[in-house]
Amino acid sequence: MIKFFRRIRQHLLAENKFSKYLLYAIGEIALVVIGILIALQINTWNDEIKATKVEVKFFANILLDLEKDDENLNFYLHFHTKRIEYLDTLLTYVRNPHKKMGIDKFGQYVEPIFYSINTTSYSTTFESAKSMGTFNNFKEMELLKGLSRYYADFILLENLFSSITRFVENQFEPLMYSLPEGYMTASTGDLVINEEDTQEFYDKIASIKDNREIEYDYERILRTPLLENYIIGDLGRTYNSIGKIKSRQEMLRLLKRNIEQRK
Question: What are the TM regions of this chain, as residue ranges (predicted)?
Answer without folding.
Answer: 21-40
